[in-house]
Design goal:
Blueprint (H helix, E strand, L loop, with lengths): L1 E7 L10 E10 L12 E3 L5 E5 L3 E7 H12 L3 H7 L2 E10 L5 E9 L6 E3 L6 E2 L5 E8 L10 E5 L7 E5 L5 E6 L8 E7 L2 E9 L7 E6 L9 E9 L7 E8 L2 E9 L3 E7 L7 E9 L5 E9 L9 E3 L3 E2 L4 E21 L13 H9 L13 H7 L33 H10 L4 H11 L8 H11 L3 H21 L14 H10 L11 E18 L5 E11 L3 E4 L3 E5 L3 E5 L5 E2 L4 E3 L1 E5 L5 E7 L5 E2 L10 E5 L3 E4 L2 E5 L3 E11 L4 E13 L20
Parallel strand pairs: 9-15, 24-29, 31-40
Antiparallel strand pairs: 1-5, 2-3, 2-4, 2-6, 6-7, 8-10, 10-13, 11-12, 11-14, 14-15, 16-17, 17-20, 18-19, 18-21, 21-22, 23-25, 25-26, 25-27, 27-28, 27-29, 30-33, 32-38, 33-37, 34-36, 34-39, 35-38, 39-40
C-alpha cells in the first residue's frame, strides 16, 4: 500500500512558504519512563524523500513495500516486531526557504499498529447486580487517541438469548446498550467486535449480606453545568431501615453535594450539574438495611470541560510592529484577577509540549479523583473503596486501607507524572532523620565537575565520618542521575513612476531618523490585571513580524481558576526585511550577512537596501552612506541580498539594515540585530579545588 504524507507550511505571521523539503524516516524506541521523555531514534537508510514546497504545501508518498524492505535490510526487523515492541515510525521533515536559505525541522512519531482501532471496555462495570440491567459501554479510538466516529460496534453476551446488539459510535467514539439480565448468579462474558477485532470482558456477580442490593443508574450522555442529571435509585430484596436512601457527590476528591430521598420501589431525583462537578464526578448512593448493614452502589459521570467562570480575550486581528494593542477582556459578569502572557507562535515550532491549555488544567483537576473504577464493585467495601473513599462502620464491613494514592490494579485515566523535583522531594522525605535528609539533598545537587557519584561520595567520606550520611548522599546522587537522564529530551533543531535619485536615497540613509525594529522577545505582556465583568488592557508590541498568541488565566474567589482559549493577532507589514544571524562567530572569521526583503503588496516594489557602517565590522557593503543595493521584489515574493563581512573586534556588534522605497520615497523598514563575536582559539577549562573553613579560622 501507499501512505500519503501532507504538510502545510507557513511563516509565523501566516504567509505561505516557497522552498524544498527533505524527509527522513527512522525507528523510535518505546518512550521510557513515566515522564514521557524521548526514546532512542535509529534512522532507516534508503527511505529519504524530497520535493518542492509550492504555495505553502508539500506532499510525499511512502511505499509500504519499500518501508518493509528497508526495515529488514537495515535493522533486520519487521512491522510486526515494531508492533510487539511498541516502537514508532519516526519522521523528520527539514524545510528550506528557497530565498533566505533558512532551514527548519519538524518531527512526528507515528504508531505502528496491527488494528485500526483501540477498543476500551473499562467503562463497563466489572460486577453486575442480579436482576439489574447491565450497561455495556464501549469507547473506540483511533491509534492517535482521537475518537472513531460512526463505527459499527457489535456487543454480544453469550449467556443471554437476546444478547446481541450493533450500534454506531457517537462523536466521542462511545456506544452503549442496556442488557436485561435474568437472575443469574454466575460470571458473564461481554464480547465486543469492531472491524473484525474482538475484545472480551468478564463481569462477575456482586455479593451482599442478606442478598439486598441498591442500584444507581444514570444516563450515559455527557452533560454541561446548568443541566440536570436524572438519577434512578432502585432497592432490591429489602427496604431501608429508616425509609431513606442517602447519596453523596464527589468531584476532584471533594464532597460537593449530599442529600437523602425517601425510598420507594423506584426512586428518581434530578441532580443539578454545577461547575464544581467538572470534569467528572462520582455519585454514591447507600442505605441501611434491616440488619443495619450498609448497602451501596456508585456511578461515574462525565461532564463537559467547562470552567466555572469564563474568560474571553479579544482584539483587532492585525497591528504594526511597535504599536500598542488593546485587549478586551470579558469575564461574563464575574470579578477576578486575570494573568496575561503573549507568546510568539514561532516558539512553538521548537517546542509546543508545555502550552498551558484548558485541557491541561482539566487533566490536572481530574488527577485529584482517587477512584479506581467507573462504578459498582464486588461488595459494599469494594464499591466505596473503588470510588476513592475510606470509611469507618460499626457493621462487619471493613474499609481496605490504601498504601498510596494510586490504584494497584490500574486507573481509568492515566495520571499526570510527577516532575523530577517532586520525585527528589519524595525520595528525600523517605529519610526520617533531618541530617540524612540534608545529606540526600547534597547528593541531588549538580556540580560542574565531571565526577561520578562514587567519586563524590568518596570525597564526602573523607570530610564526614558518618557512614549513614555518606550512604544517603550516594543513594540520592545515583537516583538523581537516573531521574535527570530520564528527563532529558533531544533539543529541537534548529517600480515605476517617479524614481528617487541617488542623492535622495543617500540623504535618507544619512539623515533620516527611521524607526528601527530591534526588540524580538519570545514572549511579553507578563501582567496581572483586575477585571470586574469587562475591562481592557493595553500592551506595547515588540518589533517581531509574527503572530502572537495571548494566553489568559483568571482566578477569582467565587469561581476558581479558568484558562481561556488562546487568542491570536498578527503583527505585520506589507514590506519588511528579515535578518538572521548566527548565535556567535569568531573574530577575523569571514562570514555572510544575508538580509531577506519580503514584499506582500500586489505590485512590484523597488527597494534600496543599506547596511549601516560599523567600525568593528569590515564589509564592502557598508563602507559608506553611498553604498547601497537597489533591488526589485516581485509581488508576494522575497529577495535575499548577501554582504560579506569580517568582524574585527570581540563583543556585541550591532548589524543594522535599512530599506528605502524608491517609488514612494519613504523608509519601508529597518532592523537591528546583535552579532556576538568571540575570541578566536579553543576554550579550555581548568579545575581547581579549595577547602573553605566557614568558621573563620585560617
Amino acid at each position: 500500500g501507499l501512505t500519503s504524507l501532507y504538510f502545510p507550511l507557513r511563516y509565523s505571521y501566516g504567509e505561505s512558504i516557497k522552498g524544498a523539503f527533505h524527509c527522513r524516516f527512522g525507528l523510535k524506541e518505546e518512550t521510557q519512563g513515566p515522564d514521557g521523555e524521548k526514546g532512542k531514534i535509529v534512522f532507516i537508510r534508503g527511505l529519504e524523500l524530497t520535493g518542492s514546497i509550492q504555495a505553502g504545501e508539500g506532499s510525499a508518498v511512502l511505499q509500504q513495500s519499500k518501508l518493509i524492505e528497508q526495515l529488514k535490510s537495515n535493522l533486520n526487523i519487521t512491522l510486526s516486531d515494531m508492533v510487539q515492541s511498541n516502537a514508532q515510525l519516526y519522521m523528520a521533515v527539514s524545510v528550506t526557504d528557497i530565498i533566505s536559505g533558512e532551514l527548519q525541522e519538524a518531527e512526528v512519531s507515528l504508531p505502528v499498529v496491527s488494528q485500526r482501532y483501540t477498543v476500551d471496555l473499562s467503562r463497563t462495570r466489572s460486577h453486575y447486580i442480579p436482576g439489574v440491567p447491565l450497561t455495556v459501554v464501549v469507547v473506540v479510538r483511533l491509534p492517535n487517541g482521537s475518537p472513531a466516529v460512526g463505527e459499527p460496534v457489535r456487543m454480544h453476551l453469550p449467556e443471554l438469548q437476546d444478547g446481541d446488539q450493533t450500534v454506531k459510535t457517537n462523536q466521542q467514539g462511545a456506544v452503549w446498550h442496556d442488557f436485561n439480565l435474568p437472575n443469574l448468579d454466575r460470571d458473564i462474558t461481554v464480547e465486543v467486535t469492531v472491524d473484525d477485532q474482538k475484545i472480551t470482558k468478564d463481569v462477575k456477580c456482586a455479593s451482599s449480606p442478606g442478598n439486598t442490593y441498591l442500584s444507581v443508574s444514570v444516563s450515559q450522555k455527557i452533560l454541561t453545568p446548568g443541566q440536570s442529571l436524572s438519577v434512578v435509585f432502585k432497592v432490591f430484596n429489602g427496604p431501608p431501615e429508616d425509609g431513606f436512601i442517602y447519596y453523596m457527590v464527589f468531584s476532584r476528591g471533594v464532597l460537593t453535594n449530599q442529600g437523602s430521598v425517601k425510598s420507594g420501589d423506584l426512586t428518581k431525583i434530578q441532580l443539578p450539574i454545577t461547575s464544581d462537578m467538572t470534569p467528572s464526578f462520582r455519585l454514591i448512593g447507600y442505605y441501611y438495611d434491616q440488619k443495619g448493614d450498609i448497602i451501596t452502589d456508585s456511578v461515574w459521570v462525565d461532564v463537559n470541560d467547562v470552567c466555572e467562570g469564563t474568560v474571553e480575550v479579544k482584539s483587532k486581528y492585525e497591528y504594526l510592529p511597535g504599536n500598542t494593542a488593546k485587549l478586551e477582556i470579558d469575564l461574563n459578569g464575574q470579578k477576578a484577577k486575570v494573568a496575561l502572557l503573549a507568546v510568539d507562535k514561532a516558539i512553538y515550532a521548537l517546542n509546543a509540549h508545555n502550552k498551558l491549555t484548558p485541557k491541561q488544567v482539566f487533566s490536572s483537576m481530574q488527577s485529584y479523583d482517587l477512584g479506581c473504577s467507573y462504578g459498582g464493585g464486588s461488595d459494599t467495601a469494594s464499591v466505596l473503596n473503588d470510588a476513592g473513599l475510606s470509611f469507618i462502620s460499626n457493621s462487619h464491613v471493613l474499609s481496605k486501607m490504601r498504601k498510596g494514592f494510586n490504584c494497584e490494579s490500574g486507573f481509568r485515566r492515566q495520571r499526570r507524572s510527577l516532575n523530577v523535583q517532586q520525585k527528589m522531594m519524595s525520595i528525600k522525605s523517605s529519610y526520617s532523620d533531618a541530617k540524612l535528609q540534608e545529606c540526600c539533598s547534597h547528593g541531588f545537587s549538580l556540580i560542574p565537575m565531571l565526577r561520578t557519584c562514587q567519586q563524590r561520595a568518596e570525597r564526602v567520606a573523607r570530610a564526614n565520618k558518618d557512614h549513614d550520611c555518606v550512604k544517603a548522599f550516594l543513594d540520592c546522587c545515583i537516583e538523581g542521575e537516573k531521574l535527570r537522564e530520564k528527563k532529558k529530551q533531544n533539543d529541537a533543531q534548529r517600480g515605476h513612476g517617479r524614481t528617487a535619485s541617488a542623492t535622495d536615497i543617500e540623504d535618507f540613509f544619512d539623515t533620516t531618523n527611521q524607526q528601527i525594529r530591534r526588540s524580538f522577545p519570545p514572549s511579553f505582556a507578563f501582567a496581572v490585571v483586575d477585571i470586574n465583568g469587562k475591562g481592557s488592557h493595553t500592551v506595547a508590541l515588540p518589533d517581531s513580524i509574527t503572530t502572537w498568541e495571548i494566553q489568559a488565566v483568571s482566578l477569582s474567589a467565587s469561581h476558581g481558576i479558568c484558562v481561556a482559549e488562546p487568542h491570536e493577532f498578527r503583527v505585520f507589514k506589507k514590506v519588511f526585511v528579515s535578518l538572521r544571524l548566527p548565535y556567535s562567530v569568531k573574530r577575523f572569521e569571514q562570514m555572510s550577512i544575508v538580509p531577506v526583503v519580503y514584499n506582500y503588496w500586489d505590485q512590484t516594489a523597488q527597494i534600496s537596501l543599506h547596511m549601516e557602517r560599523n567600525d568593528k565590522l569590515c564589509s564592502p557593503g557598508s563602507s559608506s552612506i553611498k553604498t547601497y543595493v537597489n533591488i526589485t521584489v516581485e509581488a508576494h515574493s522575497s529577495k535575499a541580498v548577501t554582504f560579506s563581512a569580517v568582524p574585527m573586534e570581540t563583543g556585541p556588534i550591532p548589524i543594522k539594515i535599512r530599506l528605502y522605497d524608491i517609488e514612494n520615497e519613504d523608509g519601508s523598514d529597518a532592523i537591528e540585530k546583535i552579532l556576538n563575536v568571540r575570541t578566536e582559539g579553543i576554550e579550555k577549562r581548568v579545575e581547581e579545588t579549595y577547602f573553605l573553613d566557614l568558621s573563620g579560622n585560617i
